[in-house]
User: Which sequence fits this backbone?
């Protein structure tokens, strides 16, 4: 029996067994016995104190409102995960003062973000004007201990403010392009306002500029109430949405452009009283200018605009973020001295700490000269850009990696970080094949991932034991020790692989598809083939030895220090195998989310086995090319066949859960099926023949053999080995569709995977409708198997009723069908 009070209510009598009192620092004069704890508190810090006795009291004291909120969340979590008796006296202060997200915001086709030319942006434009989305997003971030959101856009002002002197710039309504968009656009964001893109549109929200302003005022107010501050960050010089009105151009020497930008910055702050700051880049569309010219323009627009605000609002506090992107820190500091010296302005740099890939190494090396520069410029500080352009599809979770990564960030020059992507918009989920999951918040689907960066940014001492307890609450019927371990093992596939195969920028490498833009890949498709795995060196902070250096050292019998490619391959395979072994022992009971999480872990593990075999094959091929010893070529071809087989498993599991292809703005279309064909080509182009291991049926399902089904055109055969049961069905009339049906008595109604095992006599793509009790339930794509003797499976998720169900498919005759495996979700 618990009673919870604010301090002002605490004098009221209560018969409760336990009193919980919540108070901020200003009220703690009544708590004289807590003076010691209170003196230790910093901004956003809190302490918890429990008294003993017949009517115990738990006091949660926050340094400020944010600290009180975090203290309350901490207490609630302890009681929920461990019980009242586990509450101990605690003092916590934030490790990183600023813990934010990087959100490329697609406001409108006329005011796009860097990421707009992608499915992720196009599927989320409408959500950016949905208050329910922002409430859910903000609430999640507050729970995870983030305290700010940075919204990144090329030129957001026309969608946000009415600029004095430029009334025709403000945009009504929200437009989305209906043009036939290309696969790849300029990597610097240039050309996203081409007439064919902007002039072919549909209106997806009817809003006046005044209604837009009211909307964003509400969003920022809601955020501030939960200790979430908002910032807008831009690239420059972009003028999207101005359409050349009033003579505005993207030229730095255009006086009208300078005046317009300066007034836009000022008006942004005057319009939004809860806006905490602004950031700029000098920048993607400023290549033709010298550093001095860039910084002169930036100060005369953004810098002066902020100073103009403080003339009208002298008590306002503003954070000003200057990305050190294409100019030196010393030059920036000199130009922006009036802001640095202003006591109301928190001037802070920003720098890409791990380039585009946080998931590469905990030991980053790119920031060292930058740190020296900002220290020499006056002991200035930075916010680190932590870019995740690696993991979009699957639920990731490796707290040991995150903890070590954060603790290795140079603390003395750091105000904090913002975490996010340029290749993805973390809005609402749109890739799931499960109707119940479609359009949930990405921060809800990936809750564990986002929680790790926020919670460990606030307190990197938070132990794994706490995360296991959180998982136990989330998945109460699960062996969480095995889940925790399997999840972390599979998640480590990302940094190990990308640390070894280091394409530093987002367009140079995306691990979930094994590709980049064509030029960095040195292939027409962008696929990173075995040759690119030989030539692309590792991340310099990992201690990994490149394949050429390793081969040269072995051939020269020279001892070389570091982690060899063979050891990397073994790490990947061992972590993947250990993860798969653990999840086989976990029953997917309770929440359907658990089954989806286990499936994501499977996908990541098989992705790791693909890269493990790929690295081993590349190493053996490099040895063969240096020595012409056939034994190395044989080992290379064996490993490349194993790699292709693992990619086929990875794709089959993933396609059962997610939509693909995915259109990304940095590497184009991500197509897992095409990637498999490229993996097979890796074998044949190097003189081998595909010999892909067959995929074993998923354990735990109910196998219905194809030869026991009702069928008409097909015939039973046993020539191709590796089948289950007494044989398989094979078409007899060329490419004519063969109708096959099973009757299955389901023990209970619900969602099931239908897993069809097959091989193909012709390597094409064949779609078949799937009917459940005569009603279309989707389609199954039969696609490349590698050889006619390679058995694979693919899945579709359907709803079955309790009792008898009729399951029907009609694949083309080139499909050899082994069985149907029915798996309860």
Assistant:
């Amino acid at each position: 029996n618990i009673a919870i009070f604010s301090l002002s209510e605490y004098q009221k009598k209560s018969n409760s067994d336990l009193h919980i009192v919540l108070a901020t620092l200003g009220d703690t004069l009544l708590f004289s016995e807590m003076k010691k704890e209170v003196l230790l508190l910093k901004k956003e810090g809190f302490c918890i104190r429990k008294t003993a006795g017949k009517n115990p009291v738990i006091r949660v004291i926050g340094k400020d409102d944010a600290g009180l909120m975090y203290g309350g969340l901490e207490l609630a979590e302890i009681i929920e995960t461990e019980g009242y008796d586990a509450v101990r006296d605690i003092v916590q202060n934030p490790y990183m003062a600023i813990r934010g997200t990087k959100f490329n915001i697609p406001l409108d086709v006329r005011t796009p973000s860097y990421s707009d030319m992608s499915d992720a942006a196009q599927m989320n434009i409408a959500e950016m004007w949905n208050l329910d989305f922002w409430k859910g997003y903000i609430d999640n971030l507050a729970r995870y201990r983030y305290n700010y959101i940075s919204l990144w856009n090329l030129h957001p002002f026309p969608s946000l403010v009415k600029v004095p002197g430029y009334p025709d710039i403000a945009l009504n309504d929200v437009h989305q392009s209906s043009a036939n968009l290309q696969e790849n656009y300029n990597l610097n964001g240039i050309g996203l306002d081409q007439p064919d893109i902007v002039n072919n549109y549909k209106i997806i929200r009817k809003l006046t500029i005044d209604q837009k302003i009211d909307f964003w005022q509400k969003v920022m107010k809601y955020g501030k109430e939960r200790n979430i501050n908002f910032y807008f960050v831009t690239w420059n010089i972009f003028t999207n949405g101005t359409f050349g009105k009033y003579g505005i151009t993207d030229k730095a020497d255009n006086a009208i452009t300078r005046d317009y930008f300066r007034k836009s910055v000022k008006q942004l702050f005057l319009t939004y009283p809860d806006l905490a700051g602004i950031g700029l880049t000098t920048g993607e569309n400023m290549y033709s200018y010298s550093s001095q010219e860039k910084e002169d323009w930036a100060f005369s627009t953004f810098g002066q605009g902020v100073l103009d605000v403080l003339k009208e609002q002298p008590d306002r506090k503003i954070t000003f973020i200057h990305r050190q992107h294409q100019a030196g820190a010393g030059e920036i500091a000199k130009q922006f001295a009036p802001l640095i010296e202003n006591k109301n302005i928190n001037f802070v740099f920003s720098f890409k700490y791990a380039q585009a890939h946080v998931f590469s190494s905990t030991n980053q090396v790119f920031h060292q000269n930058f740190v020296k520069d900002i220290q020499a410029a006056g002991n200035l500080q930075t916010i680190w850009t932590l870019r995740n352009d690696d993991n979009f599809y699957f639920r990731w979770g490796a707290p040991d990696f995150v903890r070590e990564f954060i603790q290795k960030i140079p603390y003395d020059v750091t105000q904090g970080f913002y975490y996010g992507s340029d290749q993805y918009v973390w809005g609402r989920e749109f890739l799931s094949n499960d109707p119940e999951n479609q359009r949930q918040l990405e921060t809800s689907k990936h809750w564990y991932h986002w929680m790790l960066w926020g919670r460990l940014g606030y307190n990197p001492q938070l132990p794994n034991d706490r995360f296991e307890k959180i998982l136990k609450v989330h998945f109460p019927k699960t062996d969480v020790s095995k889940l925790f371990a399997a999840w972390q093992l599979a998640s480590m596939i990302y940094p190990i692989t990308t640390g070894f195969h280091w394409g530093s920028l987002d367009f140079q490498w995306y691990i979930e598809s094994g590709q980049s833009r064509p030029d960095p890949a040195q292939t027409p498709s962008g696929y990173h083939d075995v040759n690119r795995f030989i030539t692309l060196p590792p991340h310099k902070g990992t201690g990994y030895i490149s394949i050429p250096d390793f081969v040269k050292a072995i051939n020269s019998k020279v001892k070389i220090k570091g982690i060899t490619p063979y050891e990397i391959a073994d790490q990947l395979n061992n972590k993947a195998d250990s993860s798969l072994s653990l999840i086989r022992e976990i029953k997917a009971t309770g929440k359907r989310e658990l089954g989806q999480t286990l499936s994501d872990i499977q996908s990541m593990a098989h992705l790791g086995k693909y890269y493990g075999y790929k690295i081993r094959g590349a190493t053996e091929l490099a040895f063969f090319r240096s020595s012409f010893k056939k034994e190395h070529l044989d080992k290379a071809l064996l490993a490349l066949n194993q790699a292709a087989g693992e990619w086929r498993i990875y794709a089959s599991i993933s396609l059962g859960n997610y939509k693909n292809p995915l259109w990304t703005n940095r590497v184009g279309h991500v197509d897992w099926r095409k990637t498999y064909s490229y993996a097979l080509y890796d074998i044949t182009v190097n003189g081998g023949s595909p010999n892909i291991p067959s995929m074993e049926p998923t354990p735990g399902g109910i196998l219905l053999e194809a030869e026991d089904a009702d069928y008409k055109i097909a015939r039973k055969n046993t020539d191709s080995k590796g089948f289950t049961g007494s044989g398989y069905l094979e078409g007899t009339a060329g490419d004519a569709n063969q109708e096959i049906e099973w009757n299955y008595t389901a023990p209970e109604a619900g969602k099931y995977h239908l897993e069809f095992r097959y091989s193909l006599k012709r390597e094409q793509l064949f779609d078949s409708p799937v009917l459940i009790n005569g009603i279309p339930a989707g389609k199954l794509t039969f696609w490349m198997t590698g050889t006619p003797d390679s058995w694979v499976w693919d899945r579709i998720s359907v709803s079955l009723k309790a009792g008898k169900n009729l399951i029907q498919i009609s694949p083309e005759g080139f499909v050899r069908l082994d069985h149907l495996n029915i798996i309860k979700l």
